């Protein structure tokens, strides 16, 4: 029943926004539309919403949970090259709050979500400066402190969450890594990690929290404090993995050791 409702909503969107929808796995969507059942597959796509009056657009990314709409709500992430850092964070927090408070489980939600974006999106373009890049010419004592967050999630499976995490790292100039699986681990380091974390934690999670937070000393600059050169997704899954995608703790421990974080492993994972 859920799959049929999802397909009907997609067909409605395709008729309203031809050539604006980009599926992450279009061949699988085609199989579902043909009436075949694909165990465990979740539809994920991006939709471009254009504001003609200002000549700017917003990209909406979403995925359909397996039991949407009967038992789950959709997750969305919004981004635009014309948002500044504050607006990027604010619009995502606002849309998630709207879905949480104004949308009901059991209803198809894309129509009302798009309407909300069309009615409210323009106000987030008001800022003129784009995502701020830290001024590396300032002395370390005058800069915004650098932070490192070690985030523990019960699991990270969703392809759309994984993609959005990678996109957010670019938006907020954050380094570190994301490790999908069970459990899921995210490490964020930079000057705007709290902004990125505020968006991530607003998504639907079974369980997610910051387990460890480290903050730079006044004398430390980015080169001294930050250990990662960029943000990547890493995978250490057991060779005999089941559908639960359990991580290989031994390989993950070695990875942390290679970056000088051997002290983190026990506290992060809770193993002796």
Automatic annotation (TrEMBL):
Ranges of residues in domain RWD: 8-124
Matches recorded under InterPro entries: Phi-like, Prp3_C, RWD_dom, RWDD2A-B_C, UBQ-conjugating_enzyme/RWD
One Pfam family cited in the UniProt record for this chain: Prp3_C
SUPFAM superfamilies on file: UBC-like
Species assigned in the record: Lepeophtheirus salmonis
Signal peptide: none
Name the UniProt record assigns to this protein: RWD domaincontaining protein 2Blike [Saccoglossus kowalevskii]
